[in-house]
Amino acid sequence: xxxxxxxxxxxxxxxxxxxxxxxxxxxxxxxxxxxxxxxxxxxxxxxxxxxxxxxxxxxxxxxxxxxxxxxxxxxxxxxxxxxxxxxxxxxxxxxxxxxxxxxxxxxxxxxxxxxxxxxxxxxxxxxxxxxxxxxxxxxxxxxxxxxxxxxxxxxxxxxxxxxxxxxxxxxxxxxxxxxxxxxxxxxxxxxxxxxxxxxxxxxxxxxxxxxxxxxxxxxxxxxxxxxxxxxxxxxxxxxxxxxxxxxxxxxxxxxxxxxxxxxxxxxxxxxxxxxxxxxxxxxxxxxxxxxxxxxxxxxxxxxxxxxxxxxxxxxxxxxxxxxxxxxxxxxxxxxxxxxxxxxxxxxxxxxxxxxxxxxxxxxxxxxxxxxxxxxxxxxxxxxxxxxxxxxxxxxxxxxxxxxxxxxxxxxxxxxxxxxxxxxxxxxxxxxxxxxxxxxxxxxxxxxxxxxxxxxxxxxxxxxxxxxxxxxxxxxxxxxxxxxxxxxxxxxxxxxxxxxxxxxxxxxxxxxx
Length: 512
Hints:
The protein has three domains: about 20-85; about 120-370, Type I PLP-dependent aspartate aminotransferase-like (Major domain) (Aspartate Aminotransferase, domain 2); about 385-510, Aspartate Aminotransferase, domain 1, CATH 3.90.1150.170. It has 16 helices and twelve strands. The radius of gyration is 26 Å and the shape is globular. Helix content is about 45%, strand content about 10%.
């Protein structure tokens, strides 16, 4: 074998692969790509948040034909610049639309490194370094949000997959017969799951996918702060038990995506313990808010959860995709997911850590090297600077609420607990009418305001200067600003409110 290697290494005229590129081409590709990325980070605040484009324009601009021959690197990078120019920019300081934090430069370059290595993080055998790094990062995340310094778990594509994995884990663990392996959930009493009526749609979707059925998800009413009403939760569980149903899981939200409310996790943990339920905390958006010491008390009880989901790409400034599921009982996870593997992935002759395989603990087999961007970003900035950024976002949402409350043409529609603020534009003439309106008249005015604010949102989004989304708050259409951006300033908040005012005035002028 040694002689063969030497012969190959001294052969100079062997043909190269059709996909190899020269050192000169590699240098050009590298330098142009880095220049493009650096330019983007420098000018992101000067770009329109939403581009002036129409459906099909980008594909037409870049060409629809599949080329038979390769094209020049410079042309391709110019086309990438055109893609940037026709994209919505999550990293813009006035992008408040969705729970989508901007990527940092370290995170972006970490993704490049991970894609270069291109390992498939299925097991230690397939990717030793990546597997060990992911298990380390999972423990770091558990510690960051106050869950556990020794958390187990795995990284996922996002919160939806993390919640689906958690519900399946709960279902298998709390089912006396573990009947799900043979598709016999319907053979026993109906299984029921509990979540607040503000919970993320992925909870009901998980129940649907797993065959429990959406009608077996009990949506519990919330209090005036949009937090789960624990008294109603306990009453609903007792009611279901009397009907011979099988309650198995309760989901608490550590920051809803609608208003940012944090459910009373400690009280929910007490109920879960009382009735023997799996307690899952959906912290996909908000769990990272625990890094703000001013908010830490909101998350009391998260440490009692059986599992917790969180998304570093939502509020830890990581590139998509990057979700996480944390849990303590690794053996319960293995009992849920371990199976007889196909011959080609069976692990032979390895012990302990070297025999570890993520397919024994989750749904995915093929998995990206997601941990590198978390590891590199946290090491580059350190937890103090990351926590400062999270605290800053919370302060910006509080400032927005303050400005809304102080204005005579805006109305705050929900308390601000984390970094989400829900409000609406209310012209002075309608505000006066609301103060003395009858119930029927109030419904008519609310409907008029719903229509006005929906139009305002659309106008602001397409205007490109700022971007807000919407939520339904107690039946009313709300403008929703989610601030998970370290670039946002008070000036951006003030300017966004002025843009909203201008859009509303234009719409009312057109109506008159």
